[in-house]
Design goal:
Blueprint: E1 2-6, H1 12-21, E2 25-29, H2 37-41, E3 45-46, H3 50-53, E4 59-62, H4 67-75, E5 89-92, H5 98-110, E6 114-117, E7 120-121, H6 123-128, E8 133-137, H7 140-150, E9 156-160, H8 164-192, H9 197-204, H10 212-223, H11 232-249, H12 254-270, H13 278-287
Helix pairs in contact: 8-10, 8-11, 8-12, 8-13, 11-12, 12-13
């Protein structure tokens, strides 16, 4: 198929490569052409603007930083809405505000085209290894039509109407942020109480304490780099969207709001460019405990 892919960042870059590996024709677009160098070497075509990128495309994939960026890609000068044609389908994998996702889907429909919101989870290793889960919102028959292409990047879970994919992604990130904060508190409490860190980690990976965060993310704490593949600035953006969704749904969400405060404290303490798991370092430093541990902790983005 002829595919446009706009946004070749940490997750979008490897995801687009998986589509090329699936023998599809890609036209790629990004603010930084250097991000497209490997894609071009693999046969992709470069486009200077989103409008240029989507010419003749059957599917348009976008994956950018957040709501401000996707609104610019869609509504801006030479944006997608200026050029989208009937029978084209826009699939947005951005972590977006649900209300904006629904607005943009409606504007796409007014052009005779169709929209699916399919934000993703699974970290960089998931994007690299075609295991990047996509939460899809939109017409079910449309999702099924494009499922074979989407599944080149990872599993697709259908969530219902437009916007539901975005809501699900925010709920997923909501749980991750709470789990990451709780993981730091639990490991620090256990080790400061005398339990060897290795034994504490092995025990807390099973039973009631089991979580993807404990399994997948704890090694980034042990290695001392706290996962620079996702910054505290990105966490702030996501948590603002999550709390906004809680406000829109009129839910109290006390743990979510407390977690947002902890991440913001980590961001102001260590810097917004630092790795997301500095929220755990905040607990380490507060308790005077180090969770660094010797071992071969291969960064997940290199697996």
């Amino acid at each position: 198929m002829k595919i446009a892919f706009i946004g070749l960042g940490t997750m979008g870059g490897p995801a687009a490569k998986n589509l090329i590996s699936g023998k599809h024709q890609l036209t790629v677009c990004d603010l930084n052409k250097e991000n497209a160098s490997e894609h071009i070497a693999l046969g992709a075509t470069w486009a200077k603007t989103p409008a240029e990128a989507i010419r003749d495309a059957e599917i348009i994939f976008t994956m950018v930083f957040g709501p401000i960026q996707i609104e610019a890609v869609m509504r801006g000068k030479d944006g997608i809405l200026s050029a989208i044609q009937p029978n084209q389908t826009w699939i947005d994998m951005t972590t977006n505000q649900p209300t904006l996702a629904r607005e943009l889907a409606s504007e796409v429909a007014e052009k005779g085209a169709a929209a699916i919101d399919a934000p993703v989870t699974g970290a960089v290793d998931g994007a690299r290894t075609s295991n990047m889960t996509q939460f899809a919102g939109g017409d079910s028959s449309l999702v099924e039509r494009f499922r074979p292409v989407m599944e080149l990047m990872g599993p697709v879970i259908y969530m219902g109407d437009n916007g539901n994919g975005c809501v699900t992604k925010l709920a997923s990130n909501q749980l991750w942020a709470i789990h990451a904060t709780a993981m730091g508190e639990a490991l620090v409490m256990a080790t400061k109480s005398g339990v060897p860190l290795e034994r504490a980690w092995q025990a807390l990976k099973i039973g009631a304490g089991q979580s993807w965060c404990m399994e997948h993310d704890a090694p980034s704490v042990f290695a001392g780099h706290y996962d620079p593949s996702f910054s505290l600035d990105l966490c702030r953006k996501d948590l603002d969207l999550i709390v906004g969704a809680c406000d829109d749904a009129n839910t109290p969400a006390p743990l979510t709001r407390a977690t947002q405060q902890q991440f913001e404290l980590a961001r102001t303490t260590y810097g917004g460019d630092k790795g997301e798991l500095h929220v755990v370092k905040l607990e380490e430093d507060g308790a005077g405990v180090s969770l660094h541990m010797d071992g071969e902790w291969t960064p997940h983005w290199n697996k």
